[in-house]
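Please review the protein record below. Let me know how this chain folds according to its tokens.
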Amino acid sequence: NYQSEGRIYAKYIRDKFPNSKIAVLWQNDDAGKDQFKGLKDGLGDKANMIIADKSYEVSDPSIDSQIVALHDSGADIFFSWAAPKGSAQAIRKVGELGWKPKFFLANTATSIASVLKPAGLDYSKDIISTAYLKDPTDPTWDKDPAVIAWRTFMDKYYPEGDKTNANNLYGYVQAEAMAQVLKQCGDNLTRDNVMKQATNLKDFHTDLMLPGIMVNTSADDYFPIEQMQLMRFNGQAWELFGDVITGEVGHERGQ
């Protein structure tokens, strides 16, 4: 969930760059607000590190003016909480300005094919983001049995599907989690029991999740995945680094 992602970045920044100044571009919808909230909550008493933020509408034809204003703030860390199109525009504009902040990119906009290449691979180098699933476009996983099984599934059931579109992998992993819920239900497939089991997943893991990523839910915590691993773009591919980081949101969903 987006708040967890924000908290995970905040943990990393508090640890590695505690004296930095942060500028944030965020999408003016629930997704952007949740991501921004997670970052602020995770920074806690360091939230004043955020010295500038600008919102944008998904329908905006350009976000150049927002990027220029954030550049002029003097920040040395830049966050792009934006959909793929907005993120590609942000990467390109930051590059054109010659701005060299530590650049953090929302997990939903990490596609090399649809975001980084259109923005410019040279401008995208050293961007940091997060992952919790294996990336089938990453050569690291070419011979991974789970990725091979997913490709075989796609060839059989969805041959016209785009294997570079992360949503196709995401949907497959969601289906694996749903299958686990149904297994736990046994023969009692009432709505009440489905909901009970969906909120009673304990250390569930599929082989398409990164090592160490676990799904845990409870009666008062509906967020399945609250762990991610950081990754950095090397100009050609994403490289995972560091340990799995937990960004648990706890009981703040209603706030």
Notes: The chain has nine helices and seven strands. Residues 251-255 have pLDDT under 50 and may be disordered. The radius of gyration is 19 Å. The first helix runs from residue 2 to 16.
